[in-house]
Specification:
By secondary structure, this protein is an all-alpha fold. Helices cover 54% and strands 0% of the residues. One of its GO terms (cellular component) is mitochondrion.
């Protein structure tokens, strides 16, 4: 099984930092219950993630090795699209997403591939 944190200490820091930006700064504001309380206009911009990726990205979020940051990125991009967040101004995020979506483990883990996914969302 691949390690989700790189061996290199600085890359390990980068993977944790990107994961934290997504998990603490973006993910909570893409939950329906939170948006009902704070208002839908509070949907988060992805600029901090893109900025971090400018320093860390290679083929994936942190260099050329899959990491926990990649595992955090994909589900939140799914939610960003559900909320119709404009991601076209970012260059690194969609290119990393495209590479990740070509990996079998990410394909089978996609929310639309889960047994309890509503049929209307599977298309």
């Amino acid at each position: 099984m691949p390690r989700l944190l790189p061996d290199n200490p600085y890359q390990r820091y980068q993977a944790r930092m990107i994961s934290e930006i997504i998990a603490s700064g973006i993910q909570p504001l893409q939950n329906i219950s939170v948006l009902k309380r704070v208002g839908e206009d509070k949907k988060v911009e992805w600029a901090p993630v893109e900025k971090a990726l400018e320093e860390s990205a290679g083929h994936f979020c942190v260099g050329n090795q899959l990491s926990i940051a990649d595992c955090c990125l994909i589900p939140q991009l799914y939610h960003a699209r559900r909320w119709k967040i404009d991601l076209t101004k970012y260059l690194l995020i969609p290119s990393i997403e495209e590479r990740l979506n070509s990996i079998e483990a990410f394909k089978v883990a996609h929310p639309n591939q889960q047994p309890d996914c509503p049929e209307k969302e599977k298309a």
